[in-house]
Amino acid sequence: MRYISLTVLFYALILTAAAQEKKRADSLRSLGKISADTVIMEDVNTGEKRKVRIIVPGKDEGMITIEKSEKAYQYDSDDKQDGKRVSVTKDHPRKSYPIYGVTLSRIDLGLVKLMDNGSFSLSDDNDIFDYRRGKTVNFGFDVLQAGYRFNDQFRIFLSGGFDWTYIRLKGNYIFDPDIVPLTVVDDQTDIRNNRLTSTYLRLPLTFEFRSKNYSGMGRMRFAFGPEGGFLLKGTQRYRGADGKVKQRGDYAFNEFRYGAFARFGVGAFGIYAKYYFNDIFENSPQHAGLQNFTFGLMLGF
């Protein structure tokens, strides 16, 4: 019931933000539509009408903003050429404004390395979690964000999304889904494709630095910050003599995990790394010190 309630609340926030975003877009387009992304607006001081461009959600900030056309930043300089003043274009103003809305970004796919008290080698107590390195993976993405763009190079935002960790176990261990501490109920069964999965609602707070926009390449970006997560569910899947088996429960996964992340990319592509400071399993002294380190590729800042 806990993870169902969290999921319902999260989707309610998403739908609310989406409705606000649509209302804002409709109100902008009602000002006088020229084309799919252009409207006419009148300067309240001079009465001059100017063409402005609407940037659709997801293009850069994951929101709707208004950007003046290039002519709005042209002025006549004192320099003359062939007896006429030269028109010069100013740099685009780098204003600050809030960013918010529904997004599909920071799509992660990476490898998971289990760390045992700072070592990548598992101790005897944690040997039951010996895993297949190339098949123990992390997948996640963000669907909601809200923050503030201070200028063209720096912004801060809190985002929300989902994160899965798939631990592909080598052993035949079957765990009780509801007992804390984590307990093995069977280790003799001949099973295959044994996988222990945790699903979290992730909440990263991002500090992002960006370069200018390079033609044909996009921006270079570096982002880092803390990340928290609430457990939605745990799952164990395996194939036994009677076919596929799937069991759901908490599996003693930590109810709340916290850590830090870093991201670097160019354009829409990048790499990421995450490390969680607390243990994977809670109230399980035998498995204390077992932590999660993840790194891989990402799509979309």
From TrEMBL:
Keywords: Signal
Signal peptide: 1-19
Domain (Outer membrane protein beta-barrel): residue spans on this chain: 145-278
Pfam annotation, one family: OMP_b-brl_2
Record's protein name: Outer membrane protein beta-barrel domain-containing protein
Species of provenance: Parapedobacter luteus
